[in-house]
Amino acid sequence: xxxxxxxxxxxxxLMSQRGYRGMTVAAVAAAAGVxxxxxxxxxxxxxxxxxxAIPRLPMLTHPPDTGDTKTDLTxxxxxxxxxxxxxxxxxxxxxxxxEAEHPELLxxxxxxxxxAAVRAVxxxxxxxxxxxxxxxxxxxxxxxxxxxxxxxxxxxxxxxPDRAWIRDVINTLWPGVAAG
Length: 180
Prior knowledge:
The protein is mainly α.
């Protein structure tokens, strides 16, 4: 189990630093202190390794907690956009394109990457609810859908969003989640 953790942590770190292309199995093995065959035994392809490592990215495992929910949602979306720039969104496209022939890929994506993204938003929303900043009836999975959906939609139809777009999305979303 320690080897699995070391491999996935190394892959997540390298992807966040170098992007998907810059993350090689050899570099992951070296950073994790294992051999390449050890990595390949657990993750048969670089794609499999990357998908397994994405939920371990810092923004998903330790979402922002500045004490201000609106700031935290802005930082999370900023981190998602920055990570999308570094890693690219091609893996998402591959998983979706293979859905008809390999539905297990999309199921795995949902239970790892999707679940991690929802948990990150859920943590932010829960903290905001405890502080009285967020309405009690706000459902974190819906907020996650709105944020992620906006990002994927913008990326697909218009390209990489800029910082102004990130602020606009959160400013538009905020009145719907803010308490009183």
